[in-house]
Every structure is written in C-alpha cells, then in structure tokens.
Write a structure and sequence with these properties.
Helix content is 66%, strand content 0%. It is mostly helical. Helix 3 (55-69) runs antiparallel to helix 4 (76-87). InterPro entries: DUF5955. This is DUF5955 family protein.
Amino acid sequence: MAGGHEDPRVTELRTAVSRLRRQLAAHPAEFPDRGIAEEELAALDAMALSGSPDVPRLRRSLLLIAAAIGSVSALRGALREVREAVELFSPSSRN
C-alpha cells in the first residue's frame, strides 16, 4: 500500500480469497483436506495483506487449495476467482 492506495491486484486477491473462505465455511460436507484448504486460504490472505506477495508462494498455495477442494463442485466458481486473482501477479499480466 503506497500513499494509502492498495494495489488493485491485492484488492482482487483479498476479495476472491474472502469469498472462497466464506463459501468453504458454509459448505456442509466434510472432506479430508478441508483443513489444508483453510490453512492455505489464510496464507493467501496474509500474503495479500503484506502488499507484495511472493508469486511462487501464491501459486503453491493455489495448487494446494485446488487439490484440496477441486472435487467440490459447489466451490468451483469461487476457486476460479482465486486462480484468476493469483494470475494477476504473473509477470506476463503486468504488460
């Protein structure tokens, strides 16, 4: 955050992570890797709060989240939003 203005990519990531966290918390089914997904979503949020997240770490967290909840169809839309937000940090998207 420079001069009180948050990087729009960070805002997008925080919004997407928040949405997925809410949907995951509301999802009634238990599944074996739910805890992993929750931990990695917390890690993504913490990285976003730092203002300059580490791109390889963002991608690693995304992969772990996708592996943990990828088969839960009710969460696919929110997971896609997180993926798209992470992709905003890729060097090719800065053009």
